[in-house]
Design a protein that fits this description.
148 residues, mainly beta, Metal Binding Protein, Guanine Nucleotide Exchange Factor, Chain A, 7-stranded mixed sheet
Length: 148
Amino acid sequence: MSADSDPKVRQGGCACGVVRFEVALPTKWVANCHCQNCRRAHGAAFVTYAGYPKSAFRWTAGADDLAAWATPTGATRRFCRRCGTTLSYEGPRWADEIHLARATIEGELDKPPGGHAYVDHKAAWFEITDSLPQFGGPEGNRKKETRA
């Protein structure tokens, strides 16, 4: 896989540029996650993730500058130990996938965000105003009825 020769490969990395990766399209899904764990890890109202098979992904630079945090739910979040950019999420529910913070992937993807997950846990101070489907419940994936 090489982003230089394949238009279906995207590059990405951290804010300081030390950690770099490549990922091959197609993207399995893109979604906005509102769970407390993601909100705190990114310091934001929600984080947009793009999901890929692990086989479509590789770190290309800065592996020695990656740090990992094992969450209480058994997931692993990887981030740059130099600048703190949260880059990836790997969890036991999706053992064959890697979830990449969308903002760390350069260029356009083959799909936009398809919905909001874990809306039951969203920040009280943030209002979802778009028309994307909303999902909640214990697993964050039960379709919720929204007002038009």
